[in-house]
Design a protein that fits this description.
Layout (H helix, E strand, L loop, with lengths): L5 H29 L3 H28 L9 H14 L5 H33 L2 H46 L3
Helix pairs in contact: 1-2, 1-3, 1-4, 2-5, 3-4, 4-5
The structure holds fe (iii) ion (FE) (3 copies).
The site of one fe (iii) ion has 6 residues, from helix 1 and helix 2.
């Protein structure tokens, strides 16, 4: 049995999030390029730098466990990022696209928050103090990112709504109303 112990599950979940973080590293630059808001772009770029450190922390954890740093494909992250990249292909008003990118990014952050929360708990009860510390640091960063995105959204969502209204009015005029 490959999952005979909680320790096995811990390693499997570390491999999952390691793969997820690597997928995120590839996806963030595409998102940053696509958005209109400078503030949003800066937040995405900043999170790319933070994510590089998070990958290093996971590599430290593999060392602590005495295992090679090897990911196990995270199908959930693949799906979340696929939804995000599909949005970029849509013919969207700039602020509406930004609102959509934020929505997609927050889904990613929430997956990470759930994962790191579980992993920190596993590390604690398995007695991996240093790993617990590292996982807790990353958990805090993901939460901060989620909050930053919420804050940026509070402005962009309104811009998106107004942009939509302008479109509506222009559309009505074209229809002769
Ligand atoms: Fe992350
Ligand atoms: Fe996963
Ligand atoms: Fe993140």
């Amino acid at each position: 049995m490959s999952l005979g112990t909680l320790e096995d599950l811990f390693l499997q979940e570390i491999k999952d999030i390691y793969d997820a973080e690597k997928q995120i590293l590839k996806a963030l630059p595409k998102m940053a390029k696509a958005v209109e808001s400078e503030q949003l772009r800066a937040a995405i770029e900043e999170h790319h730098t933070v994510t590089e450190k998070q990958v290093e922390r996971l590599e430290e954890i593999f060392q602590i466990l005495g295992k090679p740093a090897r990911g196990k494909k995270c199908a959930a992250m693949e799906g979340l990022l696929k939804e995000g990249s599909d949005i970029l292909k849509e013919d969207a008003e700039p602020a509406v696209l930004d609102a959509a990118v934020i929505a997609a990014a927050q889904k990613v952050e929430h997956y990470e928050i759930a994962s790191y929360g579980t992993l920190a708990t596993f590390a604690e009860i398995l007695g991996y103090e240093d790993a617990k510390e590292l996982l807790g640091q990353t958990l805090e960063e993901e939460k901060e990112t989620d909050e930053t995105l919420t804050q940026i959204a509070s402005q962009i969502n309104y811009e998106a709504m107004e942009e939509g209204e302008e479109e509506e009015i222009a559309g009505s005029r074209r229809r002769g109303r």
